[in-house]
Specification:
single chain; 307 residues; mainly alpha; three-stranded mixed sheet; 11 helices; 3 strands
Amino acid sequence: MSVQTIMWIAFWIVIVLSLSIDLIVMRKNSALGFKKAVKMTSALISTALLFGVAIYFSLGWEKAIEYFTGYAIEYSLSVDNMFVFIFIFSYFSIERRYQHKVLLYGILGAIILRFIFIFIGIRLIDTFSWTVYVFGAILIWTAVKMLRHSEKEKSIEDNFAYKILKKFFRFSAQSAGGKFFIRENNFLCATPMFAAVFVIEMSDIIFAVDSIPAVLSITTDDFIVYTSNIFAIIGLRSLYFVLAGLSDKFKFLKYGVIVILFFVGLKMLLSRHFHILPIISLGIILFTIFVSIIASLIYDKYFSPAK
């Protein structure tokens, strides 16, 4: 049995255990409090970092740096996406005690979809080397689009997934105790819970168009790309409950994400002509995240209109 096969087995064991613990914690706390959410998030981040250390000892320094860089990219993009989830829950009036259920289905769906998208992306780059330029262009286009629309609020009515959903289902305004479907006037109706799950799942597909090419700019090793992605994703449920109370304090985080997307997109476009060491990429990404968070906290404390 090869070292990487052993690492794949270890990865799935850790993921299953992490999700199981997450489910137990959420079952006892239907709406996870801020302090417990911080502890849970810290524990999952620590687990991801320890797995990176295991990669270092089993696969070497270069693979470990690629993993940490991929994890940092995916996590920073995921933090920004959490604010989209907050908006979705607010629009559909999903009670806090049911939000963890929606997020669970979103995470399970993401684990499956990312597996498919990552391996397709890697095969495309291996077979058609020019696709690296396509992925790079997508990232830069996304960064520019985010910058142009960073201050605009979007209505869920304009969401493509929601428009599709409304064509196939009748909707009920009732939360129905967290159920996805109920009967009203002899018609089977979808509840806001089902709509929220569907929109979040479809949103993750869109997010994957950004995050997967971004990680592929660092490495095309399927093990590194997938494990770094999934370790970032499994912590999203607890992270959501942390950010739900801090959504107004990170004004400049979106701009940090824009810089990261632009950087990795440019890196992909230049990858055939100019090589940037993974350790340098990791430093740039971490520095960008750090600056955007510090700038947000300083603005909130000294320059916010509410102050």
